[in-house]
């Protein structure tokens, strides 16, 4: 609905009319984001030139939804819209650090240590420990301390700052410099903090400092807190109350997202486990037989049906999201949609999968596009090892770290043998690797980046070396040259200037850093697959929550991965699991379906 036609609730009006620090509390769809934008517009209209309202959010996708609200609100004139600056916490912190980090003794210039490169930097430490499940609490704590020390060292010595240090350093800066706090307040007299319940300790330190000079407006739902695992704290709202003289407004009982359905009622009852109704309008619980084929068929059939409903509704930019409990499953569902079972047509979709492997793979492709005179085997070996060190992101697989070690070892042996004029052992992994490297160097390039990129990737796919094949498969996950045209343009420009891709690797790396900060222009539409954790702050016309199924041997469950509650055991139900499911369920505007295995349905719901 266009916000222009919107009648504000009494409490929303109160938000609009209140001055000073503000804590706005409301459940899913209560209209927190909406009213905060209207309030931002009201404040912006009275600002002095050069001043803006700053709206801070966690995810880029939330930002696009916020921007959409602003765009729909025809009552907000353009010059006023342009005075509302919507930004992620990360990107705001980075701006501060880049300019003022030297005050903390950080080198200048600073660069971002992207998540994949952070994983590479930490892989040596991580490689020394067993898998998470096999570590004692003490070992985990020790590893955490060592990882943090390495992150700090990377920042201080190398000038490479990873995302999770942004708030840490900015907090330090603002705690020390009143002048900087004042500068920020002059530019941003009012700062809106979205999803405040999910701020971690360092972010809270930053907010405390900002609130000394600026007016802060925190939007929160204490029961949508899903970031405990990265530092959110149930005490946060009370800390806000104790720190700031503020007005508290509760948008109680309001639901503008899925009004007319029982979706919110069902979501709220998930928190207590007391279900008051047999049927909930707009909510459907379905089971599938607990095996791979049945699971896939159920998901695909339900997705076809939901898509048909939405297409038939003729709604513009309809959205259907499939929410799954794990990253692994996001990928699995995306693969199934691409190649469903026999004769079933594929489902066009976008998937929010982790791109660490694809990004590091892209570095290899771009390196191989560089002219042979700039290519060297050491460089390829380094990038391949980086790929294996970083492809698992925060949780690298032992096997991948070992791959990297084997490549290093085989390369050292190759160098020794070569120096001694001796042949390589025939079974060395360097044999197919060298063959592939030679083949890749021979690929004729044309100056059309899209074409050339594909040529290198295709050649990798059919290469003798299995490691390169793996890289090619991962790289398929990003359509690098389709996203915006900047990378493409820069590569073309590089070719025009030098008659070859002189700087392909550097250009590609920069493109990914940029990508981390880019704001999606539009909220997601069509069929989307994502991890439940990523659904926060978003809304979709229909939601399908699809969880994994137990594996049986002789009728006993031997494994039960990818469940909403870990292993689907009653003992593992906690607030996090309940809140996470509630957030997912309440994302649907019209309809939410939960697909769960027969015989062992989600324990929260039984
Ligand atoms: N007063 C209102 N009248 C009609 N529709 C409204 C009103 N306020 C908000 N809406 C609409 O309701 C939907 C949900 O609002 P909004 O996204 O602001 O809620 P929220 O509290 O931020 O939700 P969440 O915490 O679940 O992200 C949006 O589509 C918005 O346009």
UniProtKB/TrEMBL annotation:
UniProt keywords, alphabetically: ATP-binding, Helicase, Hydrolase, Nucleotide-binding
Entries under Pfam families matching the protein: UvrD-helicase (PF00580)
InterPro entries in alphabetical order: DNA_helicase_UvrD/REP (IPR000212), P-loop_NTPase (IPR027417), UvrD-like_ATP-bd (IPR014016)
Nuclease among keywords: no
Gene3D superfamilies (alphabetical): P-loop containing nucleotide triphosphate hydrolases (3.40.50.300)
Residue ranges annotated for the UvrD-like helicase ATP-binding domain, each copy included: 5-259
Binding site for ATP: 26-33
Keyword Nucleotide-binding tagged: yes
Protein name: DNA 3'-5' helicase II
């Amino acid at each position: 609905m266009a916000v222009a036609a919107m009648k504000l609730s009494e409490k929303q009006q109160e938000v609009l009319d209140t001055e000073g620090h503000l804590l706005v509390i409301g459940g899913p769809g209560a209209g927190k984001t909406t009213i905060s934008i209207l309030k931002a517009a009201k404040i912006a209209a009275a600002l002095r030139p050069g001043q803006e309202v700053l709206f801070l959010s966690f995810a880029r996708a939330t930002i696009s939804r916020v921007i959409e609200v602003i765009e729909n609100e025809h009552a907000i004139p353009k010059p006023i819209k342009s005075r509302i600056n919507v930004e992620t916490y990360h990107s705001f912190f980075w701006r501060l650090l880049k300019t003022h980090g030297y005050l903390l003794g950080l080198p200048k210039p600073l660069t971002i240590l992207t998540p994949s490169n952070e994983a590479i930097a930490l892989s040596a430490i991580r490689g020394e420990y067993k898998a998470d499940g096999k570590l004692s609490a003490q070992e985990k704590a020790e590893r955490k301390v060592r990882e943090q020390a390495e992150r700090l060292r990377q920042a201080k010595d190398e000038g490479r700052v990873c995302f999770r240090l942004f708030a840490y350093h900015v907090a330090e800066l603002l705690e020390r410099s009143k002048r900087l706090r004042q500068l920020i307040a002059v530019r941003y007299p009012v700062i809106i903090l979205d999803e405040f319940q999910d701020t971690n300790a360092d972010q809270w330190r930053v907010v405390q400092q900002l609130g000394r000079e600026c007016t802060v407006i925190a939007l929160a739902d204490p029961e949508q807190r899903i970031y405990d695992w990265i530092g959110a704290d149930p005490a946060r709202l009370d800390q806000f109350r104790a720190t700031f003289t503020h007005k508290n407004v509760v948008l109680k009982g309001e639901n503008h997202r899925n009004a007319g359905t029982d979706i919110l009622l069902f979501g709220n009852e998930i928190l207590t486990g007391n279900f008051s109704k047999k049927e909930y309008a707009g909510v459907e619980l379905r089971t599938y037989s607990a095996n791979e084929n049945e699971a896939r068929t159920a998901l695909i059939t339900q997705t076809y049906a939901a898509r048909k409903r939405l297409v038939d509704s003729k709604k513009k930019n309809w959205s259907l999201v499939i929410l799954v409990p794990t990253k692994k499953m996001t990928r699995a569902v995306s693969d199934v949609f691409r190649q469903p079972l026999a004769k079933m047509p594929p489902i066009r979709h976008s998937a929010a999968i982790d791109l660490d492997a694809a990004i590091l793979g892209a570095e290899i492709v771009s390196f191989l596009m560089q002219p042979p005179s700039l290519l060297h085997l050491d460089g390829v070996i380094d990038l391949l090892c980086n790929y294996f060190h970083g492809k698992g992101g925060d949780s690298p697989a032992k096997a991948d770290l070992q791959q990297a070690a084997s490549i290093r070892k085989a390369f050292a042996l190759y160098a020794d043998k070569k120096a001694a004029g001796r042949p390589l052992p025939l079974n060395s992994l360097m044999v197919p690797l060298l063959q592939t490297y030679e083949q890749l160097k021979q690929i004729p390039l044309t100056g059309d980046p899209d074409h050339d990129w594909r040529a290198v990737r295709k050649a990798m796919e059919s290469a003798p070396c299995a490691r390169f094949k793996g890289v090619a498969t991962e790289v398929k996950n990003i359509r690098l040259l389709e996203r915006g045209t900047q990378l493409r343009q820069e590569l073309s420009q590089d070719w025009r200037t030098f008659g070859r891709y002189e700087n392909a690797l550097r250009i590609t790396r920069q493109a990914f850093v940029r990508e981390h900060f880019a704001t999606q222009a539009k909220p997601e539409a069509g069929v989307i697959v994502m991890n439940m954790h990523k659904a926060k702050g978003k809304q979709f016309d229909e939601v399908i929550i699809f969880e994994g199924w137990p594996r049986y041997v002789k009728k006993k469950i031997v494994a039960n991965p990818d469940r909403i509650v870990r292993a689907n055991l009653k003992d593992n139900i906690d607030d996090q699991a309940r809140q996470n499911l509630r957030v997912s369920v309440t994302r649907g505007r019209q309809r939410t379906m939960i697909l769960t295995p027969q015989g062992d349905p989600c324990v929260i719901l039984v």
